Amino acid sequence: MSIKVIIVEDEPRVRKGLAEAIDWPLFGMELIGTAANGLEGLELFRLHRPELVVADIRMPVMDGLAMTEAILEIQPHTKVIIISGHDEFTYAQKCISLGVTNYLLKPIGKKRFHTELDKVREELQADLQRQAKSLEWEQKLKSSLPVLRNAFLEEWLNGAAPTGEDTLRESFSFLNIPYEWDMEAAVAIFEMDGKEGLSSGDGRLLEFAMNNVIGELLGDSGIAYQRGNGQTVVIYQSFSSDLAEDLSLWAEQARVKINSLLKISLTAAVSAESVHAAELPRIFKETIGLLRLKLSLGTNTILHKSLVQPEQNPFALLNPSDEILLVQHVEMNDEAEIARMMEELFGQWKESGSLAYADEWSFQLAGIFTGLAHRLGKSVRSFVNDEQMEKWRHPEQFRTLEEMMSWWRQLYIELSKSYEGFRTDRKTKIIQQVMDYVDEYIYENITREDAAQHVYINSSYLSRMFKKVTGESFSDFVIRKKMEKAIHLLQVERVMVYEVADRLGYKDPSYFARVFKKYTGKSPSDFQE
């Protein structure tokens, strides 16, 4: 792209000489106009916005310095070459203050002027490279903002980020996190209940969809972000006189809505109070603790501090005979009895309702498991990976009592089988829903975005998941289903070709025929013979 140039000079001879004597294209430049004074030059600049202005200083109506000052206010990156017949220090000083470094005295030799043009071209190219680099970093930052925002909020609420208000304000502003600093806020944490029967991919997809729906329902009333464990955290702000109560009502409405949309059960814990920003990490930790109540109080509900009951018993103890039986079942690799016993023990504990918190129960099972692993001459780490070790050490991470029971049952069975795997993969339910959607709306113009919206996930994420699960791209799948439907309409229902094309969303029958032949190897009419 050529560098646009204008010349502003009141002497006609000099103006014409500069315009005609210079081979502008040689320098990658295009002369787009000349002007006889500063005012005309400013108007010409406003009209064309050139990258380079060559101007005299002393001119009628408006001098070159006043024009240059006005131009640089409009477009600061403009390059200006000042030419003057007066070697006066005040002029040079003014040019320097304006940021003009190209100051030439008349008469100007052609070689010297060429040198200046080369210099300007190099400066503009360097400016363009810097702008491109800056734009590239800006785009990278924008694409990374959601991840950076989530990471910052997680660190801050867990006390791992600076908490001074000035520093927080700067971080929130940089990451474009909306927050009303003069208002109090309350915290809610949403968690999907139970993942039994779901693959890890299914669970993550549903948690992602849950987070998206919560964000939409929240609107401008606060901040929502997804934690690494799939929970969605809401920092809630409104003009309510009782913010905590208002949050409880909103959380219940959100729970019911998500139940209806995603067909999943979820539990939310809400803070008992609203506080200013400095206190949010404290009530966040308290709210995390409230989620442990679901193990004893049940799921698919809203949990708050008033539900905490005094503990009647500090531990839920296994009696000696139960412990002996469990050890025997493991040593004899009796999977059925291990499963039955786990279900029976957890069922008895749930019915007793003697504890508000169930993590002590998990620690007892961990002790028995450790002894059994050592009897086999192995360490616990031989059976428990890093991800599992997190729940081993922090049983409050279990979502439900049923999840805890299922986790320990599986771990004990794996121990008894000594590394023999027994889990099998299952088809992703989300992808099956998408396939059903395509079948249902086969006569419509089906897009990837429509299908993604149907299952409440990102369209790009759907494409990757669809290809991974089926081995076929989403668009190829849609075309295949449409062509299969077309064959049925042509062969079985004997529908005319143009009507088949119209039914399946192809407005141009000839384009439909080309797609059909590419897929089947035959023309549509061949299927009607």
UniProtKB/TrEMBL annotation:
Signal peptide, first to last residue: none
Q: Which residues form the Response regulatory domain?
A: 4-121
- The answer to whether keyword Transcription regulation applies is yes
Q: What is its main location?
A: cytoplasm
InterPro entries, per the entry: CheY-like_superfamily, Homeodomain-like_sf, HptR, HTH_AraC, HTH_AraC-typ_CS, Sig_transdc_resp-reg_receiver, Tscrpt_reg_AraC-type_HTH
Q: Which UniProt keywords are given for this protein, alphabetically ordered?
A: Cytoplasm, DNA-binding, Phosphoprotein, Transcription, Transcription regulation, Two-component regulatory system
**Coiled coil where?**
none
Its annotated compartments are: Cytoplasm
Transmembrane residue ranges: none
Positions carrying 4-aspartylphosphate:
56
* Pfam families given in the database record: HTH_18, Response_reg
Query: Is DNA damage among the key words of this record?
Result: no
Residue span, HTH araC/xylS-type domain? 432-529
What protein name is recorded for this chain?
Answer: Response regulator
Organism, as annotated: Paenibacillus residui
